[in-house]
Amino acid sequence: MPDTGRIPADVANSTLDNEISNMTGQIDEVVAQVGGIILGKERQIRLAIACLISRGHLLIEDIPGVGKTMLAHALAASLGLGFQRIQFTSDLLPADILGVSIYNREGGGFQFHPGPIFAQVVLADEVNRATPKAQSALLEAMEEHQVTTEGETRKLPQPFFVIATQNPSHQVGTFPLPESQLDRFLMRIQLGYPDNEAERALLQGQDRRDLLAEIKPCMNVKDLVELQHRARQIHTSSALLDYVQALVNHTRRAPDYVNGLSPRAALALLHAARTWALMDGRGHVVPEDVQAVLPGVVSHRLSAAGEVNRANGEDVAERLIRQVAIP
User: Which of 297, 218, 156, 241 is nearest to 31 (CA)?
Assistant: First the structure.
């Protein structure tokens, strides 16, 4: 019998022990708590959590005022993680992010004062309003979870999660992120406007900042690290890997795309699909998991041929799903 990418229900159920079930329950608590602040955006919240469990970084691109910063605050508080916010501006310097050594008169030497990058969750707010020089200060941190300043390499805390918010590139005072930096983000999501029901509840309800102060952690660092470890153990069949490779290879061969997906993008897609399966309470990945995370993983990496921006990235990803059949 050919490998279809699916595991019989009895085998799958035997893979999921009570510990994993408890973990998914904790994730649901986080989603519910954050969803009480960011109304009507459960899917985006789940994608953000999946990005963290996959050990990636998240880019949120949207117009000001739709809750991008509030989402980052709520996630950090619900997960019990240390949080720092960096407001990116045109005069921001790398030292403002990484830290600087200051002379200590009493000790008679220079003492390093860590910058806000030394936190478990770092919000790079309006990242594309800073110059490329300041933006580049994030590259080593995001890729290697360390920073090098003044000739010394310093490790960052674990887990380490960057949430960057970005204003649309057509707005005044923005510096587009280069492809090399975009590729450091495992996912890009957009929040968009709330629907009528959610917006009415927002208008009639309590101030979101007051609700943010009431958030209680739903898990601790140990729980989160265990989730990250378990996600890498989720089973992927050879047929499922065939599907991932078919998607990636199509972007490289078809003339519809400016550039195909890189091996890093293929790994990001696989890691995110594993996490999505775990969050759904399963010990194996199915094609629907890949399709669920694919727009978030590839929308900032793919652009249609003949188009100069990535504003339609999610549409391009949806087109890719339709073009490539499940093996």
Answer: 218
Contact 167, 63 (CB under 8 A): yes
Q: In whole angstroms, what is the distance from residue 322 CA to residue 327 CA?
A: 13
What's the gap between Cα 182 and its chain centre? 12
**Is the separation of the CB atoms in 302 and 251 below 8 Å?**
yes
pLDDT in tens, 114-172: 999 999 999 999 998 888 888 888 888 998 999 988 888 999 999 999 999 987 766 65
DSSP character at residue 127 = G
Q: Among 20, 50, 42, which Cα is nearest to 271's?
A: 50
Instruction: Find the helix packing angle between 263-279 and 18-35, rounded to 10°.
Output: 100
pTM (2 decimals)? Answer: 0.87
Rg (CA), the chain: 21
Tell the CATH topology of 9-323: Rossmann fold (3.40.50)
Query: What is the sign, positive or negative, of the torsion defined by CA atoms of 173, 178, 184, 187?
Result: positive
Joined tokens for residue 255:
């003339």
Rounded to 5 degrees, what angle do the CA atoms 189, 193, 195 make?
120
Number of helices (H) and strands (E), helices first, in the chain? 15, 9
Domains of the chain, residue spans: 9-323
Q: How many CA atoms lie within 13 A of 302 on its CB side?
A: 31
CA atoms within 13 A on the CB side of 288: 6
